[in-house]
Amino acid sequence: MLSREENELLTQVGPGTPMGALMRRYWIPATLSNLIPKPDCPPVRVRLLGENLVAFRDSEGRPGLLDERCPHRTASLFFGRNEECGLRCVYHGWKFDIDGNCVDLPSEPPGSTLQRKVTATAYPCVEHGGIVWCYMGPPEHKPTKPDFEWARLPESHKLMSRQSMDCNWLQGIEGGFDSSHLAFLHGGVVEGDITRRPTIYEVIPTDYGFVAGSGREREDDLTFWSANVMIMPFQKSIASVPVGVHLWVPMDDENTMQYVIDFRHDRALTDEDIARETSWNGIHSENIPGTDRPIRNKDNDYLIDRDLQASGTSWTGIKGLGTQDNGIQETMGPIADRTVERLGLSDTAIIGLRKLYLQTLKDHAAGKSLPGLDPTSYQVRGSRYTAPKGAAFSANMARQISLEADLYEE
Ligand code: FES
Ligand SMILES: [Fe+2]
Hints:
The protein is α+β, with helices and mostly antiparallel strands and 410 residues long. It has helices spanning 4-11, 18-23, 114-117, 149-152, 169-176, 182-185, 271-278, 306-311, 321-330, 348-365, 393-401; strands at residues 27-32, 44-48, 51-57, 63-67, 81-82, 87-88, 95-96, 102-104, 122-123, 125-128, 131-135, 158-165, 200-205, 209-217, 222-231, 235-237, 243-252, 255-263, 383-388. It folds into 2 domains: 27-141, Rieske [2Fe-2S] iron-sulphur domain (Rieske Iron-sulfur Protein), CATH 2.102.10; 149-401, Naphthalene 1,2-dioxygenase Alpha Subunit, Chain A, domain 1 (Alpha-Beta Complex).
């Protein structure tokens, strides 16, 4: 349970908000590289942290991200002409490069000094793992470029998709760290046996976020651990096989873009892997063509099949692991009212997540260093493994989530 003030503090991400300012200290996904596939291709709209932006790729292949409003009279640059290393507004022809410089201003008389004084709001971009990442914070704090294991892998080793969610980003990532829902919400899809639910819950803070452990003691004197990794500001590396990575990127306070990546670090994904991950049991939801909106969405009650629900083969009657997750999170409303909830022991990781954000907001306000800005700190991946019964989670966790760990206990 949170106070109304805390709930607002954690969920509001627009310009000028504390959480919005904190998120602007990190490199965050703006769009998929393949949506701006080649030099001078059409720009795409980007909604990010409550700002309307346009992403484009200039003649030299460099990605750029500008405020959608033209600095002249605020017409939309989405309709602009992307040509000769800049985006030209179609209203009066003013043209801006990826750094926001006005490189042509043909509507003013010769000799005008206006061009030198005009700049567009531009955010620096880098490409990493098929995603265009941007930095929207103070230039003097721009961190080292992102460097994630999954992003370094060859295309053959991973599968990536994204979908929009009709709710606040915090609901998304809290759902990601909800340890006990697997056996219920996903009943009939994965681990659909409530006797296999975890009974031990741990959160270990790290210098990139935390590791949440959920353990189930087995009859063979071993504890089966799931170690789920949280990397600031909103990334989760999942204790699954293949390993899944989710990022819940806030578009604004009531909309989220979820990026989903599955990967094997040790080999290419097989046809079988891909078929499983994209089947209705998989995490990737099928979108309305040409959009990021899932076909099974809030407006059609996620195509719930009550006969399927009654049949016992699916707990929810909703097809799709990802749809079940995102759908149930959306049912809490655009921004969940955390003043009325009742948390239990199985919500340990969710409580840990809120503590991390509240503490990091304080540290940010006090000018202290922030977790997860140094890429060397987060060279880890989610893992599941067995350890002797009674051994503390912290005793084996660091080794199991290191990139050297090669254990895939399926
Ligand atoms: S509004 Fe864009 S050039 Fe005039
Ligand atoms: Fe789930």
